[in-house]
Amino acid sequence: MIIVMAPAATEDQIQEVIARLDQRGYGHHVSRGVERIVIGAIGAHESEKEAVAEQLSTLPMVERVVPILRPYKLVSHEVDRTPVPVRIGDAAFRGNELSIIAGPCAVENREQLLQAAKAVKEAGATVFRGGAFKPRTSPYSFQGLGEEGIDLLVETREATGLPFVTEVMDVRQVELVAEKADGLQIGTRNMANFDLLKEVGKVSKPVILKRGLAATGQEWLRAAEYIASSGNLNIILCERGIRTFETETRNTLDLSIMAWARQETHLPVIVDPSHATGQHQLVPPMALAAVAAGADGLMIEVHPHPDRALSDGPQSLTPKKFKRLMEDVRRVAEAVGRSL
Amino acid sequence: MIIVMAPAATEDQIQEVIARLDQRGYGHHVSRGVERIVIGAIGAHESEKEAVAEQLSTLPMVERVVPILRPYKLVSHEVDRTPVPVRIGDAAFRGNELSIIAGPCAVENREQLLQAAKAVKEAGATVFRGGAFKPRTSPYSFQGLGEEGIDLLVETREATGLPFVTEVMDVRQVELVAEKADGLQIGTRNMANFDLLKEVGKVSKPVILKRGLAATGQEWLRAAEYIASSGNLNIILCERGIRTFETETRNTLDLSIMAWARQETHLPVIVDPSHATGQHQLVPPMALAAVAAGADGLMIEVHPHPDRALSDGPQSLTPKKFKRLMEDVRRVAEAVGRSL
Amino acid sequence: MIIVMAPAATEDQIQEVIARLDQRGYGHHVSRGVERIVIGAIGAHESEKEAVAEQLSTLPMVERVVPILRPYKLVSHEVDRTPVPVRIGDAAFRGNELSIIAGPCAVENREQLLQAAKAVKEAGATVFRGGAFKPRTSPYSFQGLGEEGIDLLVETREATGLPFVTEVMDVRQVELVAEKADGLQIGTRNMANFDLLKEVGKVSKPVILKRGLAATGQEWLRAAEYIASSGNLNIILCERGIRTFETETRNTLDLSIMAWARQETHLPVIVDPSHATGQHQLVPPMALAAVAAGADGLMIEVHPHPDRALSDGPQSLTPKKFKRLMEDVRRVAEAVGRSL
Amino acid sequence: MIIVMAPAATEDQIQEVIARLDQRGYGHHVSRGVERIVIGAIGAHESEKEAVAEQLSTLPMVERVVPILRPYKLVSHEVDRTPVPVRIGDAAFRGNELSIIAGPCAVENREQLLQAAKAVKEAGATVFRGGAFKPRTSPYSFQGLGEEGIDLLVETREATGLPFVTEVMDVRQVELVAEKADGLQIGTRNMANFDLLKEVGKVSKPVILKRGLAATGQEWLRAAEYIASSGNLNIILCERGIRTFETETRNTLDLSIMAWARQETHLPVIVDPSHATGQHQLVPPMALAAVAAGADGLMIEVHPHPDRALSDGPQSLTPKKFKRLMEDVRRVAEAVGRSL
Q: Do A256 and C277 touch (CB under 8 A)?
């Protein structure tokens, strides 16, 4: 890290910073410019780095402390230079081929699931999705079928052969879901639920980690680092829109951070245009945009009857629209040298 | 709710909307303006309202659906017109008197806690704070002392007489903390952790609910509604800064939403200027601003030695600075007709 | 508009609202629900609508006033159902063919311009860009060559045959630029500079209107309405990234609003991935994403020597990288049924 | 500035950076850490600093370039350590005494102005405000009385003795307004209208510079630097709310940046709670908060009849409410050691 001293810093105050660095086992070099004195600190114990930076910044006449290294290691591109695809069932993420996850927002009943699963499989999806535990903004809204919903997802897998992913919201659900599902999903509201991240880090099933709706790219990768440092490197990042001042769309899909994350990490990065836009008519253009920008896959909400959906109807595609989209996705994927 | 039809809507499409309303037990009235046809829906079952609105908005030529009612009930000012103060120990929140919560970010050791507690009590704080379970952005940072930290807080209470509040991050911690602490705190990252909200809704101890760092005022009150609808009305709202584009301060303290929340709900609303600003020199002006704007209390980080703190040193006040601030708080409180 | 009364509203207060509507020539209908009384207002003079809504909302017990109509007319899709392409030189925007605008951020000298123009033309761009009047955050940075820069752009057009667009920042520049350039550009900082919008509304040359970096989609279309209502309908909208909390990218490219704007208006909408991302390595993926999402064109910064550029070097493509990008753009355009 | 090299940087690439620094007249020192090589650059010509930083960041294996110095000089606290109050008429800003600017949003007619001016003077305001040139989001809204409005403001000053400030939106208005008004105001939409900033920098009358609604604190001070570097140091900064995701309030009043700006610069900083909140009932708490946090003054909208106002009625105080607020302001000012 770099410590910038205020112009009025005395020699004693500079020496105080150096003494602190010394105590903590850092080397240092001092650079005396015309308007500022800057102290570079060399070497650090990962576990103390941030606390030391904070402590130094409370000392008199320290103007600011600038970190030099990225605050994540295991998920960084530097550590593991050749990305290894993460698999959910037979679907691989971050190979040449794109993989498409599709299905309804919430598990409602057997019939709905089967219809949805058959339709998305036929159109080319290779992973099914459906929520049994649902995070709802209102306590009075449909809260999901819970364990019963998981069982319906298992039945649907048996009937169609499609592996499935489903969300965990609570540490008490992890064991059950890890046993029955093919992949676990951490929703946007839980990206910084660190206890939950640690729990899914202890299982071996792949984890889809959605970006928090107000999380910076760095915080997202740090959340992935939590999972990785608990032992599970089967992580798929999922960009799903961030909160901005714009109100015409539910959230603002941030494809440039998706592209950035693919450069910064060896993990696969997929995109969920359904939650990002909140409007079915914007899902196809954003899905194609994601593929053109290099996404390793898509997660799309499909419901046999959006006008009767218990949640997220407005952003769900009908099977027919999804089929048409998949044809377009195939063409755009080929245009950028990928396949479906 | 109000359903606005697109200009090109046919009579059949309008009738389709009306038929749906009928099926769900809503009355309706149609208003035919020059450029738009607008359908008003009357009456609704709370538990279905949002799903119905979503479903209607997927019908052809429905331009948008505008809700009319506020999406919370139990915490709304309409329901309970005279706010009843919430108490933590002897400290009352939302009476004429302000109550001040103070203490270090994290529980580090017995000595630190005692020093901090004695200092803040002497200066006039009536509730102590300290984190035993810590949400840290990096998995490599100090994660808190856990259960041992709770025991140290209990000891500190015995030594000083100050009741204490502490954060719960995980449903598995609720029972323990509810038994030992005088109040539970839900941190900003867990404001939309609905399973956790339901659990703290089942205990009787007061809950301090921090606003999510990207939560709208409405979402904040809906989170409170989760706790209330699970049975616990002892809720204290806490504004602690929101995420904006500004980077000079850690977050942006949103005092106008604090004032709005006091009008919109019967719950007490307090302010945490420490997390909002991230810089000790901005804590006093923002604390005074909060009091002048009508806050029912403050939550302030105080550490005996900020330059050795294991977390949040830069935003912690020393006991001396805290004492001076409390004198100023007293004067501003009196200027707006409150007392300390 | 719809006027929602507070629950405590008396009959007199309701009649007061109705009397006001009457005075202003509005019809009304009252809908008495269980929890709220809602008054619909019918008919309005465009020029008074917003003032009336504001005035009504100040009356006692008016909870809120909800507008029903979109606040723009001339640029709305409703008015002119078949989009007519806007032309800059021979390049058409919002036809089947995409048009690409490219060139350096700032006009630096004759040599730089010629090199850039030849390179972008050869790669397939059909409009040249370059700034003579430069909005710079610091008063000490290079402020552009001004009128001399315009003359260099004219020379470059003579040498290459490429039409050019350039920014106007000040009402005093409009006449000169409108006379010499093939198109005028309104930068992101001036999107709500209404006097400037009115001036460019009086000329007949096409205007590229960049979205303000914190402007909502609606405000953007209202800014276009300013130009249109002054007489100039040759408007090309340009999405160039919005300001969010994310700091890894300079701005956040908002492609979903681009897609929304193409549905909402009959105007062409193009995308500038260079300013949005601020990093040359993110320009190609975002350019391809824009095309896949349906953009009518791109505006891209190309500099013969980004490492010597007087502004925006980090986001400029070299001619070689631009050429490669254009090949990819062609393929993605074809994949979505467009051509280059 | 500090240049951080990527881990894979070769010795040649490091030497290339050093050679560039040399050419531009910078000294350098290289610090070789375990994971990164960092190059410190010493000394710089103000006018080239940002361009050089940009150019260096385009070189191969340069990870990032970190600036060390603040990007403003004349307005910085470092340059002029004792703030000198700025005066509008007899009202001083940034002395011990607070000064209050009040009046209607827009100049509507003689009667309205006189009523408003007499009322605010009686309540204790020492500067009058009113807009003759109005920036309106819709081209169909009332656009202000223009020059005639300025004349009415002059008449009102003659009748009441109150000096007045009014907004300039267009470089063509500066001469007239500077001649007739006691202070010029740059509105939030024009904070980065650099040509306008340069023009008001050439006059000697004080300038109130509102923060752009999406401007960082640093950009705000850089805008002030534009005015200062053109020759006018009579600048008053005005915080008026920023754009965030919150929609319950029109904008989010950012008092912590107000407090920050008072530490960072020697300029006075005032607060406009009317535009920030957009709701008259939130104006008093936010006005008091601003004073408690150390603001040097307030700017408040007062209209004799908000329910007939041609703009901003919902956020205007009646004379009666303003009078009551001023009494509270006086008490809070005294509580923090200031006077009115």
A: yes
Residue C201 corresponds to which tokens in the numbers above?
Answer: 């509304």
Q: Do residue C62 and residue C112 come from a single domain?
A: no
Q: Which two tokens stand for residue B244?
A: 């904006």
Q: Stretch B34-61: mean pLDDT, rounded? A: 84
The reply to whether B218 touches chain C by the CB within 8 Å rule is: no
* pTM, to two decimals: 0.95
In A, minimum Cα distance to C278 occurs at: A256
Low-confidence stretches of chain A (pLDDT beneath 50)? none
Rounded Cα distance, A319 and A121, in Å? 10
CA-CA-CA-CA torsion sign (D241, D245, D246, D249): positive
Beta strands in C183-252 (DSSP E): 183-186, 207-210, 235-239
Q: For residue range A233-279, list pLDDT tens digits in order.
A: 999 999 999 999 999 999 999 999 999 999 999 999 999 999 999 99
Judge if B243 and B315 occupy the same domain.
yes
Average pLDDT, chain D: 94
In tens, the pLDDT along D250-275 reads 999 999 999 999 999 999 999 999 99
Query: Using one digit for the tens of pLDDT, what is the confidence trace for C19-48?
Result: 999 998 898 989 888 788 999 888 766 677
**Is D121 in the same domain as D199?**
yes
Q: Hey, which chains touch D, using 3+ CB pairs under 8 Å?
A: A, B, C
Is residue D75 a part of any domain in this protein? Answer: no
User: What is the domain range of residue D168?
Assistant: 86-335
Asked whether residue B224 is domain-assigned, the answer is yes
Same domain? C143 vs C96 = yes
The β-bridge relationship of strands A86-88 and C62-66 is: unpaired
Residues A97 and A9 in one domain: no
The token pair at B81 is: 């017109």
Per the CB < 8 A criterion, the answer to whether D253 and D276 are in contact is yes
> For D297-325, how does the pLDDT look when each residue is reduced to its tens digit (9 = 90+)?
999 999 999 999 998 889 999 999 999 99
Residue corresponding to tokens 């709670």: D273
Q: What is the CATH number of the domain that holds D300?
A: 3.20.20.70
Same domain, C120 and C221: yes
Q: Domain of A52: which CATH number?
A: 3.30.70.1140
A106 and A233: one domain?
A: yes
**Contact: B289, D285; criterion CB under 8 Å:** no
Which of A170, A219, A311 is closest, CB to CB, to B195? A170
Which chain D residues are within 8 Å of A36, Cβ to Cβ?
68-69
The answer to whether residue D79 is domain-embedded is: no
Of B100, C260, B319, residue with least CA distance to A286: C260
Percent of chain B at pLDDT exceeding 70? 98
- Structurally, chain B folds into a number of domains equal to 2
> Both B237 and B119 in a single domain?
yes
The answer to whether residue B141 neighbours chain D at the CB level (below 8 Å) is: no
- The answer to whether the CB of D127 falls within 8 A of the CB of C212 is no
Q: How is the beta sheet containing D2-5 ordered, strand by strand?
A: D27-32, D37-42, D2-5, D62-66
Q: Are C16 and C59 in contact (CB under 8 A)?
A: yes
DSSP A192-208: T-HHHHHHHTSS-S-EE
- Quote the radius of gyration of chain C (alpha carbons, Å): 23
The CA angle C264-C266-C269, to the nearest 5 degrees, is: 85
Centre a 10 Å sphere on the Cβ of residue C320 and count the other Cβ atoms it contains: 11
Give B-chain residues touching D288 at CB under 8 angstroms.
292-293, 336
* Helix ranges restricted to H, chain B: 11-23, 49-57, 110-123, 147-160, 174-180, 194-201, 217-229, 255-264, 273-277, 283-292, 319-335
To the nearest whole Å, the CA of B260 is away from the closest chain D CA by 7
The answer to whether the CB of B55 falls within 8 A of the CB of B44 is no
Read off the tokens for D323.
């009078």
The per-residue DSSP string of A276-297 comes to HH--GGGHHHHHHHHHHTT-SE
Given a cut of 70, whether residue B119 has pLDDT beyond it is: yes
